[in-house]
Amino acid sequence: MPAALPTSRARIVVLLSGTGSLCAALLEATDDPAYPAEVVAVGSDRRAEGLQHATRRGLPTFVCAVGDHPDRAAWDRRLAADIAEYDPDLVVSAGFMKIVGPAVLGAFGGRLINTHPALLPAFPGAHAVRDALAAGVPVTGATVHVVDAGVDTGPVLSQREVAVAPGDDEASLHERIKEVERELLVETVARLVPAVTSRESPR
Ligand code: GAR
Q1: Is residue 127 annotated as a catalytic residue, yes or no?
Q2: C-beta 21 within 6 A of ligand 1
Q3: What is the pLDDT of residue 198?
Q4: How far apart are alpha carbons 150 and 161 in whole angstroms?
Q5: Ligand 1 pocket: which of 181, 183, 185 to mutate (most atoms <8 Å of CB)?
Q6: Which residue has the CA at smallest separation from atom 7 of ligand 1?
Q7: Are 173 and 129 in contact (CB under 8 A)?
Q8: By the 8 A CB rule, do 190 and 36 touch?
Q9: Is residue 1 predicted with pLDDT exceeding 50?
Q10: For 116-151, what is each residue's pLDDT tens digit?
Q11: 53, 116, 145, 174: which is the annotated catalytic residue?
Q12: Which DSSP string do the residues of the chain spell out, in sequence order?
């Protein structure tokens, strides 16, 4: 007997700032009808290359740039509203290089996760791979965690190690971390779906 397919899939909004290879991996995972989530929109703080992964599939995208707002608080409120338009069960920050504020956390706290290219709490921040190399650690990796008000400080959901190879530079190490990170993100999102879809609010 074939395995039962999920009747409705969790709705994900992805946020990114760069090339979006992690977003692409998530989109590819959703091609399997048995995957328990679907990407309903992709947003960015800039006209990022990664948005094309969504547009190629006919999925909606949005750009919410800090510079288009009078201050950071106004940007944060607009970002929360932009995300809310797609009524997500889960918001995935996948290479989104901005710290969200109280409006986004108030609306999506506990359902907003981030993927980071280091074994948190080691090497938080925007230069995790460079910092790990500078520290000379033999092993680094990737972490998926819940976003809180700090910089990469929220509860860890999953981690995977990556060995630093002799001669690694920032680009080569980051690429190997991202190979692991894509799998880790796809697996972690699937594991989270039952928790984030048991909300009581009716759609
Ligand atoms: C990923 O390694 C992600 O963890 C990192 O940006 C990369 C995005 O790759 N995010 C951070 O460093 C956030 N602090 P991608 O554009 O190929 O998906």
Answers
A1: no
A2: yes
A3: 77
A4: 23
A5: 181
A6: 95
A7: yes
A8: yes
A9: no
A10: 999 999 999 999 999 999 999 999 999 999 999 999
A11: 116
A12: -PPPPPSSPEEEEEEESS--HHHHHHHHHHTSTTSSEEEEEEEESS--TTHHHHHTTT--EEE--GGGSSSHHHHHHHHHHHHHTT--SEEEEES--S---HHHHHHHTTSEEEEESS-TTSS-STTHHHHHHHHT-SEEEEEEEE--SSSS-SPEEEEEEEEPPTT--HHHHHHHHHHHHHHHHHHHHHHHHHHHT------
- Measured in Å, residue 183 CA sits from the centre of ligand 1 at 13
Q: Strand pairing partners for 38?
A: 11
pTM, whole model, 2 decimals? 0.94
Q: Does the pLDDT value for residue 16 go beyond 90?
A: yes
Of 156, 18, 147, give the one whose Cα is nearest residue 90.
147
Q: Tell me: the pLDDT tens digits for 30-50?
A: 999 999 999 999 999 999 999
- Ligand 1, atom 17, lies closest to the CA of 21
What region, left, alpha or beta, does residue 136 occupy, with left being phi > 0 and alpha being psi -120 to 50 degrees? left
| Contact between residue 143 and residue 178 where contact means Cβ atoms under 8 Å apart | no
Closest Cα to atom 6, ligand 1: which residue?
A: 95
